[in-house]
Amino acid sequence: MTDIDVSATKRRLEPKWLILTAVMLGSIMGPLDGSIVNTVLPSITDFFHAEISIVQWVPTVYLLTISCLILLYGRLGDMLGYKRIFLYGLAGFTVASVLCGSSQSIWMLIAFRAVQGLAAGMMMAVSFAIITAAFPPSERGKALGISAVAISMGLGLGPTLGGLIAEHLSWRYIFFINVPIGISALLWGSRVIPAGIKNPRQRLDLYGALTAFVFLLSILLYTNRGEDWGWLSPASISLLAVALVFGISFIWIERTSAQPMLNLALFNDRVFSFANLSALISFMALYALVFLTPFYLMFVLHYSILKVGLIMAASPIATLFVAPLSGTISDRIGTRALAFCGMCIAAVGLFLLSGLNASADSFDVIWRMAITGTGMGMFQSPNNSAIMGSVPVTHLGIASGILAAMRNVGMVFGIAVAGAVLYNVAPIAVYMQPGAFGSAEIEQFVSGLRWAYISGAALAGTAALTSLMAIRRQRQD
């Protein structure tokens, strides 16, 4: 064996790459489950003979429980070790998947989805911290870019698998497929992920955790249900008031606590603050595409569930190929330029999507979605690297949790913004069903869709500008 062969073999066996594979194996389940469930919601509705307004809580409660507790999990990772939190999340997610697939009523399914969200939040909160701790700064962008492949694969495979399952199997299998993945990830992760640094002397800020939970729950519920309840209805205003009170209380507690759950001093760093803001806005922009495009494909172009799933895979597949390359380049030239250019490309893709009409074909949709996915892939790896490289090693867990929170909260906000634009321009969209309306109603829906995509493009452009505000290079820890 030559010296080159020996060197290559040694690199393949380095522990950091094994750690990365373990994190990726576990990380694929969250986005896979999130994207696959949306595809089979019609099947779940028919099976339980439930109202759509109730079935909507199946994806909603999952996203809410993830978002509300993810900061707490990040803090626990800094205290107890990232491996423990990650593996507990894997185990809980796998068990919850079995319970979801075995549900005997829609309310059981909603309850078990909440449990599944609790576990998924544990994995999401510390995954970036595990990777950042395992790799040197010179390879951070590359590693985070490769890890993005797992998320993109989950998002890309979800709609297609959902379509196949909806056509040939019971909806229950969308949850059962998590079981072999979860068991494999649990066994592999327990073997290769290091225990990490623990801080047993630190105490959990219970009051901070409680106020953060109530604040996030209130604001996310308002965002998610405001369209149905009325943005200025008594229920909505009450939620806003609760969010305001507990948000202010949270900030006061964190400023005065000796060991705060969230060290607000982290936001004094411009890279950390503006890169997180960019992440939030970027996912708001992306979910204008993710949320609305399936309705366009089904209601306007009359595609089957399977074909919808295949087309929806175009954006995450493009991200899958671009993200690792972008991350590697960012290790050499820095993060700002790539993050800015990526969001500019995503803005162009979303604007081009606004040109779709009732006579478009599948290729018209695919190449526009691929442009958007390319931009997101170029943006995400450098932006994530900038965030994780701007904090001290002792705060990697909470930084990872904040980044994951930005992603999930951005999804909720993005759905709310896109839906609000669509329903205000095209009120008929609230009542649309496949094949239910004529050409006039379809045209109104397409008009609303056009302005929703334009709003997404505006958000992507805003994220590009905030990326430029992260003016300090990431710190070489």
Which descriptor suits the 3D outline?
globular
Q: Fraction of residues in helices?
A: over 70%
What's the CATH superfamily of the largest domain, by name? MFS general substrate transporter like domains
Order of helices and strands: HHHHHHHHHHHHHHHHHHHH
Please give the alpha-carbon distance between the first and last residues: 36 Å
CATH hierarchy class name of the largest domain: Mainly Alpha
Which topology of the largest domain does CATH recognise?
A: Growth Hormone, Chain: A
The total of helices stands at: 20
**Taking all residues together, what is the mean pLDDT?**
82
Overall structural domain count: 2
Our Rg estimate from Cα atoms comes to 22 Å
- CATH architecture assignment name of the largest domain: Up-down Bundle
Largest sheet: none
Pick out the low-confidence regions.
1-13, 473-477
What proportion of the residues form beta strands (DSSP E)? Answer: under 5%
Question: Can you give a write-up of this model?
Answer:
By secondary structure, this protein is mainly alpha-helical. The chain has two domains: 14-204 and 261-469, Up-down Bundle (Growth Hormone, Chain: A), CATH 1.20.1250.20; 205-260. The chain has 20 helices and no strands. The relative contact order is 0.14. Mean pLDDT is 82; it is low at 1-13 and 473-477.
